[in-house]
Amino acid sequence: LATGPRQNNSIFYEIRTYDIKPSKMKEFVEMVNKYIHLRTAHSELVGFWSAELGAMNKVVHVWKYDNFAHRTAVRHALANDKDWQGKFILAALPLIEKQHNEVAYLVPWCQLGKSPKEGGVYEWVTFQMKPGGPALWGEAFRAAINAHVNTGYTKLIGVFHTEYGLLNTVHVIWWNESPDHRAAGRHRAHEDARVVAAVRDSVRFLESQQNLLLIPLQCSPLK
């Protein structure tokens, strides 16, 4: 993870979360779907979601960069893109209450996945682990994730660890066919002795956990 081996390249992901004014959420989503092509002309969008459960009037979007120089060049180009600034930024900023961003890497044992089909839902789980990094909790965390993967009820999309932002944070993205499918799978997992044992070992290193149920926007590559 952050202090151990990571993927053998400089690719990272910027995770952006925006809190939108409650009365403006519909307008904001419509604007994103209409103008996001102006933004994706500059760099790759991984996914764009709105929160359905666990938070309200919040969107999460993830952008992929080759390295920090790539991000710097993209940000400079965006600042000088008159269409992007005029058609989206000037209109969108008054709709946003708060912005937050993080830089994260995929863990070395996880490749970014795709949903088996369109029409499902995404679960975004944020784990705040105890200070000490993967030397302390990495193996136990990986075992807990793999135990859930092995049940087969959910699809792992990605596991990210923060480089900028709150450290010792791990974000895990899962895909499920529906909220009910997820609930049924979780019920079975909680009765699986292998999952229970792996989670019990990992939770010793856990400070807090937050779960969001996310719905992909029309423009999201991950649907």
From TrEMBL:
It comes from the Eukaryota. GO terms for biological process: mitophagy. InterPro entries: Dimeric_a/b-barrel (IPR011008), NIPSNAP (IPR012577), NipSnap_domain (IPR051557). Residues 13-111, 122-221 form the NIPSNAP domain. SUPFAM superfamilies: Dimeric alpha+beta barrel. Pfam families: NIPSNAP (PF07978). One of its GO terms (cellular component) is mitochondrion. Belongs to the NipSnap family. PANTHER family: NIPSNAP-RELATED (PTHR21017), PROTEIN NIPSNAP HOMOLOG 3B (PTHR21017:SF19). This is NPS3A protein. The gene is Nipsnap3a.
